[in-house]
Design goal:
By secondary structure, this protein is an all-alpha fold. 86% of the residues lie in helices and 0% in strands. The chain has 2 helices and no strands.
Length: 71
């Protein structure tokens, strides 16, 4: 894989990490500021957090695989 491709994957990892952090921040804010009134928000925020973290993990795995191909 060429260096440009690796850089693109690194950018994707950074983007997905940022999105996962944003979702984690929403979960934190809910726990710190809006519970128990915001109880109904838990499922949606947890699902979004899980999905964002899973996408981040997949991007990291793709990057690592590409880096190991390059040797």
């Amino acid at each position: 894989m060429v260096e440009e491709d690796i850089k693109g994957l690194e950018k994707e990892v950074a983007k997905r990490k940022r999105l996962a952090s944003e979702w984690a921040g929403k979960m934190h804010d809910l726990a710190e500021e809006r519970l128990p009134e915001g109880l109904e928000e838990i499922h949606e925020i947890a699902e979004g957090t899980y999905s964002a973290c899973r996408a981040w993990k997949e991007a990291v795995e793709t990057l690592r695989a590409a880096q190991s191909e390059g040797g």
